[in-house]
Structure formats: C-alpha cells, structure tokens
Amino acid sequence: MLYLHNFTEVYEKQDFYKNFDYKIFENKKLSGVRGYMDEESGKYLLDEIKNTGELSALHFLDSGNYHHLSRLYIDLIKHPFNLVVYDNHTDMQFSAFGNILSCGSWIADIYENCENVRNIIIIGANEKYIKDCEFKNNDKIIFACSIFDVNMAENNLPIYISVDKDVLSKEEFVSDWDQGKMSLATLTEELHYLAGHYNIIGADVCGEPFIGDDYNIGLSNNINKELANIFVDILYEI
C-alpha cells in the first residue's frame, strides 16, 4: 500500500503510484507544515495518519521540506527498532525557534524523545554537515557512506527506513535541496539488501523537485517507481 501526502501538487504530475493500491492525503491547503510544523498542523496530520494511514506501508512525503512527517509515523512504533535514514543532511540541527519540529531537526527529536529507537543510522550525509552535528560522537548515532559499512549483526531489530532523495547525485535528478553523491544503483542495491535481511516495519520517501520543474519531476517519478517496487511486497503489519 502506498500513502502519498500531496502538499505541493507534485504527485498530480506523476503516475508511478497508479500501478499500486494507494491513498492520497490532500494536504495542499494545510498551512504551518512547510519546513516547520506548528502544533495545530501536527495534530491534524497525526490524527489523519492514525485514522486512515498505517505504519506498515510506503509513505511518500512530497519534497524534503516535509521530511519531519517521518517523525509522526515513527510515533506509531511501539517496540524497539532501528532507524535507517538515507539523506544528504543529518536532520539533527535544532531550530533557533526552540523545540519546534522541523525538516532539519526531526532526527534529533527522535533521539531525545523516542524511547523505542535503539540506533539511528544515517547513510550518505555530507561530511560538512556531520562535522557541524553536535551528536556526531554519540554511540547511538551512526554515520556511514554505505549500509555495508555498518555492523548490524548483533542488533537484529526491526527497521524503519526513511529516504530523502537528495542523497542522490544530480546526475540522477535534481531535487529541491543540495544533493549528495550516491547513485540510484547504489541506493537500490542497499535497499534490496535491507529488505532481504531485516524486518522492515515501515518506510517513507521524500525529496521531490520544485513543482515547476517538469523535467526532473518526470525523472523523480521513475525513481519513485523503482523504490515502490522494492518496498511494496515486503512491508507488512507489525
């Protein structure tokens, strides 16, 4: 099952999901969500997710400006798990406005407030962002260039996977944030590996292009199709 949060109308320009069972959340008129999430919008989205969504599915969150929706889905996990994130950014920088949840702080919020998470593994983050991250020397948080560099043999917990497509090189497509160096072939290889070796309890994807960039929206559509094909058959209810 695919769930799509349609904030920018980007999914109206794509068709990858039409080959699957899907539900679209029409969130384009919702304010207080882009980049930061205010209390009222956060409550609305959490209620929407609890009432009509499910954890054990693939969730498409629109652009990277809405990556903090991952935090709301992770609230549904009620047992120990590991979080694996593919992202060019650490998303562990707290806002200057206090504890407000943002696309740049949602992983830090999980670290501080989610008692069920055991390890947070961030793959593909830019070295300059890691250097500036205050959590970089924490044993619970692992930064790596590849999942194959991470020893997970002694911690065979269920996994939630979050993919921000800005981890990919601009040779693959152009997202709405600065991008990493990973190829799509590498990303899909690693996701196939995780899907084949671990219990994946949920996953999400963000990082869509600017709404006016039809060329890259088309490329992103093809990437989304590949990611959906990896996940849709292996996700199941916990």
TrEMBL record:
Coiled coil: none annotated. It comes from the Bacteria. Pfam families: Arginase. InterPro entries: Ureohydrolase (IPR006035), Ureohydrolase_dom_sf (IPR023696). GO terms for molecular function: hydrolase activity, acting on carbon-nitrogen (but not peptide) bonds, in linear amidines; metal ion binding. This is Arginase family protein. It comes from Catonella morbi ATCC 51271.
